[in-house]
C-alpha cells in the first residue's frame, strides 16, 4: 500500500496473522503494545482467594476474561492448629505471594481498588 492509504480487516480469536512494516513510529509501537496486553486495557481485576491457600487473578476487558495468575500455597487446614504461629506464617506467606503476583503481573498505577468479602 502507498503511504497515507488505509485498509481495515476483521481478525477473530482463531485467525493468526503477521503484520510487517519496515519502520514503526514510537506511537504505533505503543498502540500495538496497549492493544495486545490485557493488563493495559483491563476494566476490572478480579482477585479470588480462599482459605485453603489458593488464589486466582483475572483481568476483565470488555470482550475477554483472562486468568493472569494461579497461586497454590500450603496452608494448614487442621482446625486444631488454626491459631498456631505456623498457620499464621503460612497465611502470611500466602498473602505475600499473592501481593508479589499482583505487582508482577499488573500495572496498578491509577487503578481504583475495592473489595468484597463473601463468607
Brief overview:
With 119 residues, this protein is of the alpha+beta class. The protein contains three helices and three strands.
Q: Mind explaining what this structure looks like?
A:
30% of the residues lie in helices and 18% in strands. The chain has 119 residues and is an alpha+beta fold. The chain has a three-stranded antiparallel β-sheet, with helices on one face. Strand 2 (54-60) and strand 3 form a beta hairpin.
Question: Which short descriptors sum up this protein?
Answer:
alpha+beta, Nucleotidyltransferase, domain 5, 119 residues, 3-stranded antiparallel beta sheet
Show the helix and strand layout.
Elements lengths: L25 H11 L1 H4 L2 E6 L4 E7 L4 E8 L12 H21 L14
Antiparallel strand pairs: 1-2, 2-3
Give the number of domains: 1
CATH topology-level fold name: Nucleotidyltransferase, domain 5
Task: Label the CATH architecture.
Answer: 2-Layer Sandwich
Percentage of residues in strands? 15-25%
> How far apart are the termini?
59 Å
The residue fraction in helices comes out at 25-40%
What overall geometry do the principal axes of the alpha carbons give? elongated
Largest sheet: 3 strands, antiparallel
**CATH class placement:** Alpha Beta
Return the structural class: alpha+beta
Amino acid at each position: 500500500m502507498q503511504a497515507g492509504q488505509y485498509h481495515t480487516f476483521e481478525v477473530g480469536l482463531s485467525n493468526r496473522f503477521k503484520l510487517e512494516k519496515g519502520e514503526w513510529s514510537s506511537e504505533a509501537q505503543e498502540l500495538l503494545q496497549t492493544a495486545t496486553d490485557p493488563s493495559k486495557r483491563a476494566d476490572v481485576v478480579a482477585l479470588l482467594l480462599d482459605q485453603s491457600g489458593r488464589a486466582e487473578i483475572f483481568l476483565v476487558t470488555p470482550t475477554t476474561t483472562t486468568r493472569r495468575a494461579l497461586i497454590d500455597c500450603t496452608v494448614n487446614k487442621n482446625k486444631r492448629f488454626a491459631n498456631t504461629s505456623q498457620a499464621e506464617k503460612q497465611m502470611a506467606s500466602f498473602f505475600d505471594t499473592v501481593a508479589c503476583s499482583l505487582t508482577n503481573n499488573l500495572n496498578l498505577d491509577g487503578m481504583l481498588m475495592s473489595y468484597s468479602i463473601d463468607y
